[in-house]
Request: fold
Amino acid sequence: MVKKYVLVSGGVISGIGKGIIASSTGLLLKTMGLKVTSIKIDPYLNIDAGTLSPLDHGEVFVLNDGGEVDLDLGNYERYLDVTLTRSNNITTGKIYRDVIERERKGDYLGKTVQVVPHITDAIQDWVERVATIPVDDSGEEPDVCIIELGGTVGDIESAPFVEAMRQFQFRVGHENFALIHVSLVPTIGSVGEQKTKPTQASIRDLRGLGLSPDLIACRCEKTGLDEGIQSKISMFCHVQPNQVLAVRDCNSVYHVPELLKDQGLIDFLWKRLNIEKTIRITEPLRQKGTDMWKKWNELTTSQERLHDTVTIVLVGKYTNLQDSYASVVKALEHASLNCRKKLIMKWVEASDLEPETRIANPVKYHEAWQDLCSAQGILVPGGFGNRGVEGKIAAAKWAREQKVPYLGICLGLQIAVIEFARNVCGMTDANSIELDENTPTPVVVYMPEISKTHLGGTMRLGARPTEFQAGTENSAIRKLYGGGSTVLERHRHRYEINPELIEKFEAKGLKFVGKDETGERMEIVELADHPYFLGVQYHPEYLTRPLKPSAPFMGLILAASGDLKSHLASL
Reply:
């Protein structure tokens, strides 16, 4: 089967938007009826992203198979509506581990194992193998594989991957391999003049490494590329003017596919990869793609016309880098769009809500509480460690007492239960084992099967079923999920609610409406006599889609807008 590969590389600076351009390219090809998969290459030595700090690398995204991967795979899944595997995220650590294990087994017996050819061959073999894995409902091999090369061209750590891709273009053939290079065209000085030298230098570096771009995606400010800049980049970078794309800043990343399509990206790749003559596209897939593009356009158009607002406050500990909560933000956006509301997000650092901040920085303390008190909905996402926990507990207390819609995710569920135990059940010293190993009232305990010595890849990870309990037919979250008895959601945690205390909590009105298949592990908690007070042990944000928003987030937005009761009545 002929397979097409589109490599997306980046130059000048990191964080330039390769992931969005790769996702948008995949989306556009899928709207033409092609089956598309994606691979993200991360040049770091970690085996996976599981032990990386969110403040250093952004959110850790979790896949169905339990893979802890780069947040860009979340973009791929959301844009392409596919289900990827841990193998779709390649790291230097994975490649070297693979090669070293093979060397120890004797696969290279008698040979000196080197970066070239052994590491570069391992990279190419991995890409070819993963590109054949079905990722959508069809169960068929993808037609196109989008490969995003993380980092910046010229980085020492990415050199083996660049060399592997140089070789790969010849392995698969010229008409089966295309390269999009994302570069920056900065605006300098008070006159606002755009400069092409960084892009020229980046392309020169790329060519020096043996790769020639087919398309140059130029990131620039809202006005796009100035007159003459496109032709200048074309002349100095050895491409036609139509191969230079202006990727300006948009009001929303959902407009980027349309921006690329208007500049002829699909037409160019169609000819460059000879898709018409080498890939057979069935009529049902072509129609499905057309319908997908129509819905996407409706989504982006409606976003521009929204006037009614809904204000959600996110209380977290990694708010200095908003990418730490990338999927949470996307889930809120998707739910808001579906409810036809314009989302206003406010970020509150959890520690700013604590009494210590009132003494150390009273202005910051009062601003944080003002934001919290004015919120229509409060969200406490996942996290690890002690910092900011008491602030999150204060936020949960405010939401419960003031009847403000609340959604707690993972740690957010545990926070809600700790707060309830302290202030409703009279367990004033209630706490989590994670936060205080010697707490006399452990409301949250270590899961018995979890390793206490190894932190990488040892949590309860991946897609697992949650079963709604008998008598929960009127539960708001169950109705939002469609009324079924089971839901499948992705998990990432090593602590759980202490099952020995469940009866005491439920007697006071905190209902555990969802449990795991054994009935021992608490998954969903709802508070009786509250507009919307929900905690989930799993991470529903990992499965949100622009056209299929997540049920817990839909509930939060509907409740914050005052529309939940009428919505549930209509179901």
Notes: The CA atoms of residues 43 and 156 lie 9 Å apart.
